[in-house]
Amino acid sequence: QVLAGVYPIAQLQDPYSAVGFLGSRLALPPLLQLRPPLGPAWTAWDLCEAWAEKRGYKTARAARNDVARAANGLLRLAAEGRLRLCFTPPGYS
């Protein structure tokens, strides 16, 4: 619902599940030119942390990567159409 633009991104309690869905459908690291993760595979948290690092999103007090802001930014990119997300219809060959 978030990626379709039905549910507002700002009202999400957990944006990481939507980012995980987006990351499982699109090759985000090469598209966004993100650094490789420390672990064996990309997780939603890794995607958000790498995007926060690339964009320079930092928290005010501790100056850590602001992953919540990065998650919202990634979801806005998809909702606005800057990241193209499309599916083939069922039964299409």
From TrEMBL:
Keywords: GTP-binding, Nucleotide-binding. The keyword GTP-binding applies. The keyword GTP-binding applies. One of its GO terms (molecular function) is GTP binding. PANTHER family: GUANINE NUCLEOTIDE-BINDING PROTEIN-LIKE 1, LARGE SUBUNIT GTPASE 1 HOMOLOG-RELATED. This is GNL1 protein. It comes from Climacteris rufus. The gene is Gnl1.
